[in-house]
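Protocol step 4 of 6: structure prediction from sequence.
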Amino acid sequence: MAFVVGVDAGGTASRAVVATLSGAVVGRGRAGPGNPFAAGPAAASSIADALRQALSGVDSDLVTAGVLGLAGTGACADPAITKALDDAWRSAGLSCSWEVVGDAVTAFAAGTPSPSGAVLIAGTGAVAAQIQNHATVRVADGLGWLLGDEGSGHWLGMSALRTAVRSWPSPSPSPSPSPSPSPFVVAVAEHAGVDDRDQLISWAQRLPHARIAALAPLVCAHARLGDPSATAIVTAAVGHLTATLDEVASVGPVVLAGSLLTADTPIRDGVLTVLRTRGTTVLTSGDPAAAAAWLAARPLPGTNPTALHTTLLTPRV
């Protein structure tokens, strides 16, 4: 019996999977953020914790290979970060070879066994990447909320706030009653815990990033209800995301990843409509930790990569 290990180390959590070469998952682990840029030195500890959980009950000497899918691979240019990651791997009892790949690679592999194509990711942030032979060769956007991430959850939240403050009705001269804000604007204000325009502006100026990004489901819900402002924001987001993807367009399938593109959202619907109209093969990303395990197993002797991918990651359309 031989095993492989895959890790998805992101800005929110670190997830680990241990699987056999036939595709049976025998262990899973989850710990804190594993992005070295976001979590600093604690990232390596989180990765080690996730690995130890996943390896519970597994003979680590039988693990033959591993892949770490990392958000923020640029941090590996720092020898101290590289050493910390290696120490994390060893502290979990692993002595096998392992490699680091970008999270765009694992997101792509979580949707298709094809070695090349493109991945479009839209969650809190947004980025597209061209993948060739399971390596990132070109990237578009992914620039963060201040400079980019257009069409992302944070972008949707900021757009909702801008719409709310700009469309808030001006007070009418007394004794005429002031007009009421639209249901969408009221919902944005309630999310922020305020009840007037100036308070909403003040709330936004404090840049509560997680709460701003958390407006994305509200935008999607009101777009589903036909609210014109929310619908306009969603339409613009779809345009931004498809334009970002076009910057890295390549031959091969396109994998959609991130919560806005894997869940049932109007953002996903819009992107799917555009891409399918073009005749693009579109797939949906699954578990990136399982994809990392698949990447680790793929080159091993006696492995059938396509069959293994089907077992570990049932294709989603």
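Step 5 (inspection) to follow. The chain has a mean pLDDT of 91.
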